[in-house]
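Good morning,

Attaching, inline, the backbone tokens for the sequence recovery test we're adding to the shared suite. The designed sequence is right after.
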């Protein structure tokens, strides 16, 4: 833990001096935290094999309400704090992966709308076949992403982090689907069915006329 304290002290010192924290300092802290987590896992793995109190067990939560300093902690309290420290390293990984997934899904969503805009703006041939291939691609990707979101929402570890019920779909499951899939879905329907496109455009036309 000395490396962690040293890395944190260095970053705090830079913060107090209004200096920029570079990748070098951040990398040192991340490496120190990872090394500390690995050292703790060596001892925790033996306890996990034997089994122990769950992190949300009433007795454990009661002990954590007013924790004394490290010297005053009992063995179970130290083990729980060490386990939470290790868990925080995994949370950092989950957060990074989630951000990258959001960026990739946003790119797919915008890419579909741009592809449909290009198809409507230029007479690509064969136009109808290209349009239906986009529909098929949207259905396949949509089904795959829906399955991924379902498994993430049901996952016991992620449900524990987000404080939701494991193996169940909650309301938060539908929000990413609507946010990333609603506009591409409307765009595909409008592109493939001119009557729908005309209906939607009739709602927008008054606003465009008022601007002019």
């Amino acid at each position: 833990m000395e490396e962690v304290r040293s890395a944190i002290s260095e970053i705090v010192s830079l913060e107090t001096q209004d200096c920029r924290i570079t990748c070098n300092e951040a990398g040192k802290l991340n490496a120190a935290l990872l090394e500390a987590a690995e050292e703790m896992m060596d001892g925790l793995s033996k306890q996990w094999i034997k089994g122990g109190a769950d992190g949300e067990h009433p007795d454990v939560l009661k002990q954590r309400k007013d924790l004394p300093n490290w010297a005053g902690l009992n063995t179970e309290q130290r083990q729980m704090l060490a386990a939470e420290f290790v868990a925080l390293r995994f949370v950092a990984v989950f957060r990074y992966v989630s951000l990258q997934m959001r960026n990739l899904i946003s790119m797919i969503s915008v890419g579909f709308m741009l592809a449909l805009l290009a198809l409507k703006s230029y007479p690509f041939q064969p136009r109808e076949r290209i349009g239906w291939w986009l529909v098929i691609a949207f259905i396949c990707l949509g089904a795959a992403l829906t399955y991924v979101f379902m498994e993430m929402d049901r996952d016991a570890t992620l449900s524990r982090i987000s404080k939701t019920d494991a193996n169940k779909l909650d309301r938060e499951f539908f929000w990413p689907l609507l946010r990333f899939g609603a506009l591409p879905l409307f765009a595909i329907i409008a592109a493939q069915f001119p009557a729908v496109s005309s209906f939607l455009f009739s709602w927008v036309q008054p606003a465009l006329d008022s601007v002019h």
